[in-house]
Write a structure and sequence with these properties.
Number of strands: 53
CATH superfamily of the largest domain: TolB, C-terminal domain
InterPro entries: FN3_dom (IPR003961), FN3_sf (IPR036116), Ig-like_fold (IPR013783), WD40/YVTN_repeat-like_dom_sf (IPR015943)
Protein name: Fibronectin type-III domain-containing protein
Largest sheet: 6 strands, antiparallel
CATH class of the largest domain: Mainly Beta
Distance between the termini: 104 Å
Organism: Terriglobus roseus
Number of helices: 0
Number of domains: 4
């Protein structure tokens, strides 16, 4: 699959051998055989020989943990570089490995050996790290029992020389870890910094026939955060030096941040970033038949990179391993080794005869009818198949629980897949075919909308604003909202709480609703007295999820409201579905209590008054009295608890002076409807 979504037949991928090793770090081809270097957390490493039939034999074993590089020599022997604290061994058929380079015997004493190459004159070049050095070792005329004396061919201030290759003209290219520099080194050892990558580690390089150099880099170049050092004297200061590692030295599946980038450096030195892979680390590059291939981790994928058009690449193989660590050309294609787990695979030079691609499972979220498939790409050479089911995984422990794959013909409608929740398609491509897009038309079964909650607030009017002073507003919450947080945000839109104006002559309701098909909705509101059976329409064709009305439209009483949601805006009348919900009962009370006769008498400096008050709808909440226009004072009913629709009041108040006195009474119900009366006491 190309990164723009275009699908084409991939090269055939086959397994050559599966080893017992968890890690295979290196690979080389010699004649009809392959040599692979293993890695292990403990117990040493091996050089494995894989013949053309895939049979595996151990060519040599080493005490070091990893065989990081393998290099066949013209005489049929094979060099193996081991790490850490490693050596370069020469392995001849069946004999004891000969040490041709021992890092511990050098002045630099590098800890890691990363790459091997032969100089044009036949000398061995060894790329090492900690410190970054390239050693030169003369192999010609060396006695099997003597270790050749190496010389330093190149030394840099980086941590590692991670990758190494030699061009046909003898020019040496080296990639570093630390500063992320690609060096060009002449045969006499004169270095030149060819390119400084924006990443810190050059993991691998490749060279094509036209002299273009390809380099892969990984790791952000931001300097590491160093802990502060104590500055006070006479204290022991412990300093730990941490040796920077390399991407390939990690024996785990951790993702290297920032992904990898691949660059092309033309023969005149002009660099060009070809691709940036955000989720992949490039461990190996190889040129085959003019194409550039990249083996990556930590998803074990192989990409073919377009070297002429920057930003274009094709995902050609998924290896089912975590890392593709090394690649080498063979007579039939491109061989590669993997880590986690250790396998030897080959990508053929020819594409698969019947390359198939299976799409992700599409979820229609409900029972769905499947319509025509729209396919763009080659006019011929593409066969399309579909299947459907009602569980997400087509297979479980009971076997295949979906429909069978069915072939799709041009413009076939409906698709040959039963109505169901899930659908999957498969394309089989012949060589040369190309698939650009596949679109499946579908129609989910219409499901009714749902009204999830209703809140009714008498004494409030919603105008769509919310800028009034807090003292004149009321927050309308749903029944499930905590009392400490009465304002509830609308979940479907993330809108702020519904703020309504205080208005004793209005009623506001709000509701939550959703549609399983995400259809547009409209709403209707009905009312009825709790003692009635018949609903009466209050308002229809409401698009908002809140509505206010004048309470005077309804006589005093106890009512319910019903909100009906309809998906009519996007369906015909025959297909329209509805859902409804009824509110909790609420009261409308706009009539004040009715007072009885107020009687008042004066005697012995005291005023005595009695009266009754009755409300038709809600209980009396409280009463107040005033004598001779004095301050209002709280008045208790008989029994001291005001909780009934009828209350009796009998009270005495001290007065001064003789003659007549005026007493006034105010009575409130629970909805703050009030009535006042007065009487003259003699």
């Amino acid at each position: 699959m190309r990164n723009d979504g275009r699908l084409e037949p991939a090269p055939a991928l086959r397994a050559i051998a599966s080893t017992q090793a968890t890690f295979l770090w290196s690979l080389a081809s010699s004649g009809n055989s392959l040599y692979a270097g293993t890695g292990a957390a403990s117990g040493g490493s091996q050089l494995l020989k894989i013949d053309e039939k895939g049979a595996i034999t151990t060519a040599a074993s080493f005490k070091e943990l990893n065989v990081q590089a393998v290099l066949p020599l013209p005489d049929g022997s094979v060099l193996a570089a081991t790490s850490p604290d490693g050596k370069v061994y020469r392995v001849r058929g069946g004999g004891t490995p000969e040490v041709v380079f021992d890092a511990s015997l050098t002045t630099e004493k590098p800890k890691y050996l990363w790459s091997l190459a032969l100089a044009k004159d036949g000398d061995l070049l060894v790329a090492a790290g900690a410190p970054a050095t390239i050693f030169r070792v003369k192999l010609a005329g060396t006695s099997p029992t003597a270790t050749p004396k190496p010389t330093v061919f190149f030394h840099s201030g980086d941590q590692h020389i991670r990758s190494l290759l030699v061009a046909p003209d003898g020019t040496v290219y080296a990639g570093s870890d630390g500063a992320g520099i690609v060096y060009r080194i002449a045969s006499d050892g004169k270095p030149f910094a060819l390119y400084a990558a924006p990443k810190h580690e050059i993991t691998t390089m490749a060279l094509d026939a036209a002299g273009n150099l390809y380099a892969a880099a990984v790791g952000d170049r931001r300097p590491p955060a160093l802990p502060p050092l104590p500055a006070s004297g006479q204290q022991a200061v412990s300093i730990t030096i941490l040796q920077p590692g390399s991407a390939i030295s990690a024996n785990n599946n951790s993702i290297v941040p920032d992904g990898s980038e691949i660059y092309r450096i033309s023969p005149d030195g002009t660099p060009l970033r070809l691709v940036a892979l955000q989720q992949d680390v490039v461990y190996a590059l190889a040129v085959r038949n003019g194409a550039l291939y990249a083996g990556t981790g930590n998803r074990g994928r192989v990409y073919r990179i377009d070297t002429e058009n920057a930003g274009v690449y094709t995902d050609i193989a998924h290896t089912e391993a975590s890392q593709v660590t090394a690649m080498t050309p063979t007579a039939a294609g491109l061989a590669m080794v993997t880590a986690n787990s250790g396998k030897v695979l080959q990508i053929s030079d020819v594409v698969a005869a019947n390359a198939s691609y299976i799409s992700d499972v599409f979820d229609g979220e409900t029972t769905t009818r499947w319509g025509r498939a729209e396919v763009t790409g080659s006019a011929a050479g593409v066969d399309l198949f579909v299947r459907s089911g009602n569980i997400e995984n087509p297979r479980d422990t009971l076997g295949n629980l979906w429909s069978d794959w069915k072939s799709v013909t041009a413009n076939q409608t409906p698709l040959p897949a039963p109505a169901s929740r899930y659908l999957q398609w498969k394309a089989v491509l012949k060589p040369g075919a190309q698939l650009r897009s596949v679109t499946m038309n579908y129609l989910p079964r219409n499901l009714p909308p749902q009204v999830d909650d209703i809140a009714v607030q008498p004494g409030a009017r919603y105008t769509g604003g919310g800028s009034a002073a807090p003292s004149s507003t009321v927050a309308i919450s749903f029944r499930g909202a905590p009392s400490t947080a009465p304002a509830l945000a609308l979940p479907e839109s993330g809108a702020p709480p519904l703020i309504a104006q205080r208005d004793r002559n209005a009623v506001t309701l709000r509701w939550l609703a959703h549609d399983p098909n995400n259809d547009d909705l409209m709403f209707a509101v009905d009312f009825r007295d709790v003692h009635e059976q018949t609903w009466h329409r209050l308002k229809d064709k409401i698009s908002e999820r809140a509505y206010s009305f004048d309470s005077a439209l309804l006589p005093d009483g106890e009512y319910e409201l019903r909100v009906t949601a309809s998906d009519a805006p996007v369906h015909t009348d025959a297909d329209t579905l509805k859902g409804e919900r009824t509110s909790a009962p609420f009261k409308i009370d706009t009539t004040p209590p009715v007072p009885g006769t107020l009687t008042a008498t004066v005697g012995a400096g005291k005023l005595h008054a009695t009266f009754d008050a009755t409300d038709a709808t809600s209980p009396i909440s409280h009463a107040e009295y005033s004598v001779d226009a004095g301050p209002w004072q709280y008045l208790e009913p008989a029994g001291a608890l005001s909780d009934s629709k009828s209350e009796h009041y009998d009270f005495t108040s001290a007065v001064t002076g003789t003659g007549e006195h005026t007493v006034a009474i105010r009575v409130f119900d629970r909805n703050e409807n009030a009535v006042s009366v007065k009487a003259l006491a003699r």
